[in-house]
Known about the structure:
The chain is of the alpha/beta class. The chain has helices at 2-44, 63-74, 92-106, 122-127, 154-159, 184-209, 216-219, 227-232, 242-253, 269-274, 277-282, 289-312; strands spanning 47-56, 78-87, 111-120, 132-135, 140-142, 224-226, 238-239, 258-262. Strands 1, 2, 3, 4, 5, 6, 7 and 8 form an 8-stranded mixed sheet that branches. It starts with a helix and ends in a 6-residue tail after the last helix. The model is unreliable at 272-288 and 301-318 (pLDDT under 50).
Amino acid sequence: MKSSRHEKAGTFFYYIKNIFMVLLFLSFAPTIISSIKTTIVDSIRPKTDVGLLKIDGALYDSSYYLKKIEAFSKDDNIKGLIIKINSPGGMPGSAQAIFAELKKFKKQKPVVTVVENLCASGAYYIAASSDKIIANPSSLVGSIGVILELPNVKDLLNSWKIKYSYIQSGKFKTAGSPLKDTSGDEVAYLQKLSDSTYTQFVKDVAESRNLSEKDFTKWADGKVFTGTQALELKLIDQLGTIQDGIDIIKKLAKIETEVKLIQPKKRTSLLKMLTSADDEEYGMESRSFAENAGVFASKAYSTFIQQQAVESNSLRIS
Length: 318
């Protein structure tokens, strides 16, 4: 009886193993087939690679974008870069870092920015580094300015009889704190910070866009403009879509073939399981895909077998 039971269990696990391996293969099959198909098509109709980097949402960290720009810069197959922006801006330091990196990139390969909906404040700071900026007529562009928001909840705390005190070294260490009133000296100090950042912003945009700093009040007073208005102010170069951006990058990079837009690879949940945390940070795989797939399959199957063994022996933790 025991022998027969073991034989049945062995047969069951054998079928489960094979089914699992077939499902694993099928999960990768579409990607493999698509890759082969793309390779064949590209060999028949050659295309030139152009990077496509999308900047969406508020900017609080430049790390991801800097790494991708550097990767595009080092890739000899990439002949140019299209930046597609839909962002209200964000932290000035992040915008400046991306602006500076794109200025370096532009010395080797052309950069074109395409705006579909919104490119404001720090996002426009980034766009200004481009060789050309394209936007739709109804896109919102500009908002060149700096803001420091100083919320104050002192009265709210007082109403709840909550007291808050500071022990500080440095007169302006608590300047802008929402838990106390801002003194006249602190307001003046914070205004100087805002003015300094604003001056850098205006200077960089004026130099990059070949605009007169003397007329900055026309285009850098914090207003946002439609694409049509931005064109009149020379904040953009052309009204159009991403296809117009592709046409322009072809001219700037002297590309005679069709263009293939290359985006940074997005990591799927499965790919995340196949790579380590360090690999994820730098957007690369230290092992080959086949090696990672093998390790993942081995671990998954091992876990499955162990689970089955536990359940067959009625060993449970509850």
